Amino acid sequence: MPTVIGFEGSANKLGIGIIRDGEVLSNPRVTYVTPPGEGFQPRDTARHHQAHVLEVLQKALDEANISHREIDCIAYTKGPGMGAPLVSVALVARTVAQLWNKPIIGVNHCIGHIEMGRLITNAQNPTVLYVSGGNTQVIAYSQKKYRIFGETIDIAVGNCLDRFARILKLSNDPSPGYNIEQKAKEGKKLIELPYVTKGMDVSFSGILSHIEHVGRKLLKSGECTPGDLCFSLQETLFAMLVEVTERAMAHCGSNEVLIVGGVGCNKRLQEMMGIMAEERGAKLFATDMRFCIDNGAMIAQAGWEMFVSGITTPIKETFCTQRYRTDEVEVTWRD
Ligand code: MG
């Protein structure tokens, strides 16, 4: 019954979670929230994580009600993500691994999301849509790899939403995407926006500059409201994501779809994906904010799978990397 602790800090969430054989023993998290109109910078985000990591670690142990002696393995996010925050959290993971004399495993952040989604929803072999502030990928498992069928060719869908929230000066608390989702409920008018899918790939940066440019004009002339713009942006982006996910499902003959990543808790995205799934006779799986937003337990869970399959990372190789593709990892724990 291995018990694994996971350290996550690849972006503005710092999370430490403990997993014991599929059971989440604890999963505390703190978020670095910047003022409206501002994004989070790597250096400030790293400082935030450094300031809170020890209290979050203590909380993770206290809530799980275990001593560090009962932990069998340390898992940390190796990448992808922002360099400075990644390194500040990996340093603590490396330190406790040596202090407590435990093995350590570097985990791919995207695979953390996938394994957490599979654990929580019990989806067996889903086509995965991974959507967050830093990533947008359509993924399916085949022959020891999580293969990327489609992805963004520029910015992530969550980055598009976050940056539009900054333009509107929406609050970053609890997250810009959450506040866009709420604003979108006030929207009545669908403003036509560019719709950019290329095969199974998607592109968002042109849509962002278009809505920034046209949106300002329409707001000024009173032809639309901020709610209309949020509504139109969500409908367009999510339709693109549902389209490419459906194409991957058709290709794989898949009857399960799993949405993971921070944007995955958007109820409208879940609704649209659910309609597509139902029309194909497939089942939609999604999780809530505790597990789809970056957290420590997801790193612990992927680490648990790796550890049980016999993998550990030599301490000399416990570095971080900002670029680390999902399909680089050999999935030793699945058939
Ligand atoms: Mg993420």
Description:
The strands form three sheets. Strands 1, 2, 3, 4, 5 and 6 form a six-stranded mixed β-sheet that branches. Helix 5 crosses helix 7. The two termini are 21 Å apart. This protein folds into two domains: 3-114 and 291-328, Nucleotidyltransferase, domain 5 (2-Layer Sandwich), CATH 3.30.420; 125-288, ATPase, nucleotide binding domain (Nucleotidyltransferase, domain 5), CATH 3.30.420.40. It has 335 residues and is an alpha/beta fold. Helix content is 44%, strand content 19%. The longest helix is centred in the last third of the chain and has 27 residues, at 226-252. The chain has helices at residues 42-64, 83-99, 109-121, 157-167, 176-184, 205-220, 226-252, 267-279, 289-292, 296-308, and strands at residues 3-8, 13-20, 23-26, 29-31, 73-79, 104-108, 127-131, 136-142, 145-151, 197-198, 201-202, 256-260, 283-286. It is globular, with a radius of gyration of 20 Å. It is built from ten helices and 13 strands.
